[in-house]
Design goal:
- The chain has 313 residues and is an alpha/beta fold.
- The chain folds into 2 domains: 116 residues, Alpha-Beta Plaits, CATH 3.30.70.260; 158 residues, Vaccinia Virus protein VP39 (Rossmann fold), CATH 3.40.50.150.
- 30% of the residues lie in helices and 30% in strands.
- It is built from 9 helices and 14 strands.
- The chain starts with a strand and ends with a strand.
């Protein structure tokens, strides 16, 4: 089978939105080439060892690569992606150069391309994300391992918004909690919640590819009995009371719309973790959370991204 590699030269600010567009278009995975990775200071206690080649990264901006199966509709799909990316400017998202190019690749080349970008990464005090093909041994007795296969789509779980979401879950999840993961994607946040001994986890996503990807990753981590994956439009129609934690790593504008429904589902003193928020949207989301009946208990910041831990009052 042949694949079309689509490459978009853009900005950090636009990464989350463009990745979402690519996933909705049927991309089988996303690679993010960010030159900030070359100079990022990594805390020693994370134990992260990654060898990066500067030649793989742009001098400025960010390059996002995704893979689409070549079929009779590939031309229309790519044109639609280009238009949706251009339309992001209507939401005050800086898309930078927005240079889009495409290349045809064979399946065996595509499968190997993932491995040069994806290695074990310790992303919090306890969590390490490990690709399925790596032989990794725990370095401490309380370390928690999440196995992911990036070929299943939705990235590697090491984007700042995902990392901060997992760090937030690690701070507040208690054994026996009920957790709802809105816009689950790969299922990585649901997996993290289950490994932290949440009793019940509901993973929601409107995208069928995401639902399939989450189900496969959850099975890979042998957590099917704890996590239920559902196809759903945000929290619409979800019938469940006294949720302990809702986590949403999605676009800021969607979080704002979601806040009222989250407040109606989360128990008093329960938590709403919101991530995927770019700095220019920070105040807008914070205001919506407070007006929705939440108190911001902690704000996490990584690069240009913000994550709120909010408690329902």
């Amino acid at each position: 089978m042949k694949w079309n590699e689509i490459s978009i030269h853009t900005t950090n600010e636009a990464v989350e939105a463009i990745c979402n567009i690519l996933h909705e278009a049927g991309a089988s995975g996303v690679v993010i080439e960010d030159p900030l990775e070359l100079t990022k200071e990594r805390e020693n206690w994370f134990g992260e060892i990654i060898e990066l080649n500067p030649d793989d990264y742009p001098e400025e901006g960010v390059i996002i690569k995704a893979y689409l199966p070549i079929n009779s509709f590939i031309g229309e799909t790519i044109n639609s992606i280009k238009q949706e990316i251009s339309d992001l400017t209507h939401y005050d998202i800086d898309i930078g150069k927005n240079h889009v190019s495409t290349t045809e690749v064979k399946e065996e080349d595509w499968e190997q391309a993932w491995k040069q970008y994806y290695h074990p990464a310790k992303i919090s005090r306890r969590f390490t994300i490990v690709p399925t093909w790596e032989d990794y041994q725990k370095v401490s007795s309380d370390e928690l391992i999440i196995e992911l296969d990036p070929g299943m789509a939705f990235g590697t779980g090491t984007h700042p918004t995902t990392v901060m979401s997992i760090q937030a879950l690690e701070k507040i999840i208690k054994a026996g909690d009920t957790v709802v993961d809105v816009g689950t994607g790969s299922g990585v946040l649901s997996i993290a919640a289950a490994l932290l001994n949440a009793k019940n986890v509901i993973a929601l996503d409107l995208d069928e590819i995401a639902v399939e990807s989450a189900e496969q990753n959850i099975a890979l981590n042998q957590l099917q009995e704890k996590i239920e994956v559902r196809k759903g439009d945000l929290l619409n129609g979800l019938e469940i009371d006294n949720v302990d934690v809702i986590v949403a790593n999605i676009l800021a504008d969607v979080i704002i719309r979601l806040t009222k429904d989250a407040a109606s589902l989360v128990r008093k003193n329960g938590y709403f973790i919101t991530s995927g928020i770019i700095q220019p949207k920070k105040q807008e989301v914070q205001t919506a959370l407070i007006q929705g009946g939440f108190e911001i208990t902690e704000t996490l910041v990584m690069e240009d991204w913000v994550t709120f831990i909010a408690r329902r009052t």
